[in-house]
Design goal:
This is YbjN domain-containing protein. The protein has 130 residues and is α+β, with helices and mostly antiparallel strands. It is built from three helices and six strands, in the order αββββαββα. It has one domain: Yope Regulator, Chain: A (2-Layer Sandwich). Strands 1-2-3-4-6-5 form a six-stranded antiparallel β-sheet. β5 and β6 form a beta hairpin. The radius of gyration is 14 Å and the shape is globular. The model has no long low-confidence stretch (mean pLDDT 91).
Length: 130
């Protein structure tokens, strides 16, 4: 996989797309227990020349959770991703360079992030809103 266009073509065949723009594609990752997780995938250009994909997923509203507890939980249990506030949402996000990305280097972190964020959502939001 070498470009954003290539990645988007793959995503369209493998995931349920819910929204798409030129530099962003939003998907749902669905789990066997009928829960699902919204994932925001966006094209980022580093230093005006190198394409990256940012994988981000919301799990709580920033004003409705104890951010100290969230960060402590992520620090103790999370392998992929880091916490951020994007708009009003607390998200877990991870970024990958596209230039020499193998498909498993995208799929595996995506699955791990989705599962982790679904667990964080259940713990801190008490439901399946995202």
């Amino acid at each position: 996989m070498a470009t954003w266009k290539d990645l988007v073509a793959f995503i369209r065949t493998e995931y349920r797309v819910v929204e798409e723009t030129r530099d962003e594609i939003n998907i749902y990752v669905e789990f066997e227990d009928e829960r699902s997780q919204l994932i925001w995938l966006s094209r980022e250009v580093l230093d005006g020349r190198e394409e990256w994909v940012q994988i981000a997923s919301p799990f709580a509203m920033a004003g409705q959770v104890n951010l100290n507890a969230v960060l402590k939980e992520i620090g103790e249990t999370t392998v992929v991703g880091g916490a951020a506030i994007m708009g009003e949402h607390v998200v877990l996000r991870h970024s990958l360079p596209l230039s020499n990305l193998d498909i498993n280097e995208f799929v595996d972190p995506l699955a791990l992030l989705a599962g982790t964020v679904d667990s964080l959502e259940e713990t801190f939001s008490g439901g399946d809103a995202f």
